[in-house]
């Protein structure tokens, strides 16, 4: 009964959406994409103002429907297979916006912006301001602060980032121009390194009977899984470099053109490859861009039932997030390998907490480092193999679609 109900619900939703993506044009940017941006901004204003929860609840369904429509119907690749990853980015962005507006809707206390003055030892020094009220000047302030909130995913300078680890800067640079030049150099280096890694991975990834796969059936088991482990680890490094290069490019633009200070752009990662536990890797060393809604929607609702193990909910939500990204490449998907990888990361963190409870000691040291790498690579096989196959299938899918199927 529940299965037929879910299928019927899915059919009701998808029946209102085009079966093929529509190439972006000025018309559908205004009618489909602009409502997402406006709704996102309005919600960022409302979450700063007290007594607006009912307004947020009323606006939420409109924004969610807008993000689903934009994420599933617009084609930013213009029908070119080599640009299919742009649609993947669109799907991820729309999902992230959806999760953020849900988090803002559920917030019981207004978001308050502080004045960022420095970033030392992984903590941002802040001078506290008073919460906004419904006075006209405060509404204007909220409208201005909403511009920062919409693009501020780590909560730098906001009260909701409490408990989030911010890596300390590698060097003390106060000059905007110097920092912008350094960001541009790092962007270039990471872009070059990522290109090299992608070329190497393309050369060593074997052809399979169904698209591509990281497993070469012609090799004996030991060499087969050694090769796939290298590809899995290289994919992790690729993800790290991709995030780094995008971050440094945006930092370059914002410090040079929008006169933001270097202290507003602390490092994204804190040496994740040397993490001595899964808890440290996911809790502080990997980027924390989505921690706000991972915790608010994935973890906190489960806390009354699972206690300290409720963090598994955040990993489940992370798995769904990455699955949505894969589905942005085409309309198919193998949800279990993708979500399963992140669920097993949550299981690994739970095992570390159980170990601490039993022994009174944290996982760490050389043994913890080996444990982290082994656990990541073993379960990462499923995630990376699915991504490789899906990326290849998406290219074939787009190549087989006649150009007349794309319309503006």
Can you walk through the features of this model?
There is one protein chain. The protein is mostly helical. The protein is 63% helix and 4% strand. The chain has 13 helices and four strands. A two-stranded parallel ribbon has the order 1-2. A two-stranded antiparallel ribbon has the order 3-4. A hairpin with a 2-residue loop joins strand 3 and strand 4. The chain is globular. The protein starts with a helix and ends in an 8-residue tail after the last helix.
Determine the N-to-C terminus distance: 40 Å
Strand runs, count: 4
| Unreliable parts | 1-10, 116-133, 396-408
- Assembly state here? single chain
Task: Give me the secondary-structure category.
Answer: mainly alpha
Strand percentage: under 5%
Give the mean pLDDT: 83
Write the layout of secondary structure elements.
Elements: H1 2-14, E1 22-23, H2 26-46, H3 53-73, E2 74-75, H4 84-106, E3 115-120, E4 123-127, H5 136-151, H6 176-204, H7 221-257, H8 278-285, H9 291-299, H10 303-306, H11 312-327, H12 335-359, H13 365-400
Parallel strand pairs: 1-2
Antiparallel strand pairs: 3-4
Helix pairs in contact: 2-3, 2-4, 2-5, 3-4, 4-9, 4-11, 6-7, 7-13, 9-11, 11-12, 12-13
What are the salient characteristics of this protein?
single chain, 408 residues, mainly alpha, two-stranded parallel sheet, two-stranded antiparallel sheet, 13 helices, 4 strands
Briefly characterize the structure.
Helices cover 63% and strands 4% of the residues. The chain has helices spanning 2-14, 26-46, 53-73, 84-106, 136-151, 176-204, 221-257, 278-285, 291-299, 303-306, 312-327, 335-359, 365-400; strands spanning 22-23, 74-75, 115-120, 123-127.
């Amino acid at each position: 009964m529940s299965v037929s109900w879910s299928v019927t619900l899915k059919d009701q939703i998808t029946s209102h959406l085009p079966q093929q993506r529509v190439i972006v044009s000025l018309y559908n940017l205004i009618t489909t994409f602009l409502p997402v941006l406006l709704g996102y901004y309005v919600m960022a204003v409302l979450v700063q103002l007290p007594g607006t929860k009912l307004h947020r609840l009323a606006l939420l369904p409109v924004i969610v429907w807008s993000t689903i429509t934009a994420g599933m119907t617009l084609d930013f690749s213009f029908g070119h297979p080599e640009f299919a990853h742009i649609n993947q980015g669109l799907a991820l962005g729309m999902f992230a916006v959806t999760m953020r507006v849900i988090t803002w809707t559920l917030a019981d206390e207004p978001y308050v912006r502080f004045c960022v003055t420095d970033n030392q030892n992984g903590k941002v020094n802040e001078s506290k301001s008073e919460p906004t009220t419904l006075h006209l000047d405060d509404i204007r302030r909220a409208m201005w602060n909403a511009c920062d909130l919409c693009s501020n995913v780590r909560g730098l300078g906001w009260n909701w980032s409490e408990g989030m680890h911010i890596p300390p800067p590698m060097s003390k640079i106060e000059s905007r121009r110097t920092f912008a030049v350094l960001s541009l150099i790092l962007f270039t280096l990471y872009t070059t390194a990522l290109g090299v890694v992608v070329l190497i991975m393309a050369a060593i990834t074997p052809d399979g009977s169904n698209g591509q796969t990281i497993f070469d059936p012609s090799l004996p088991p030991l060499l087969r899984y050694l090769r796939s482990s290298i590809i899995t680890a290289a994919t992790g490094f690729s993800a790290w470099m991709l995030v780094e290069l995008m971050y440094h490019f945006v930092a370059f633009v914002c410090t040079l053109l929008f006169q933001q200070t270097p202290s507003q752009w602390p490092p994204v990662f804190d040496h994740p490859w040397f993490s001595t536990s899964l808890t440290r890797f996911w809790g502080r060393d990997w980027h924390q861009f989505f921690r706000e809604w991972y915790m608010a929607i994935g973890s906190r609702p489960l806390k009354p039932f699972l206690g300290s193990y409720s963090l598994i909910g955040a990993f489940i939500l992370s798995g769904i997030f990455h699955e949505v990204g894969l589905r942005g490449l085409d309309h198919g998907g193998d949800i279990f390998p993708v979500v399963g990888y992140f669920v097993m990361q949550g299981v690994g963190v739970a095992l570390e907490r159980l170990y601490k409870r039993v022994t009174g000691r944290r996982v760490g040291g050389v043994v913890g480092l080996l444990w982290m790498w082994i656990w990541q690579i073993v379960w990462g096989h499923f995630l990376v193999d699915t991504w490789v196959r899906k990326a290849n299938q998406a290219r074939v899918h787009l190549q087989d679609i006649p150009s007349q199927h794309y319309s503006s």
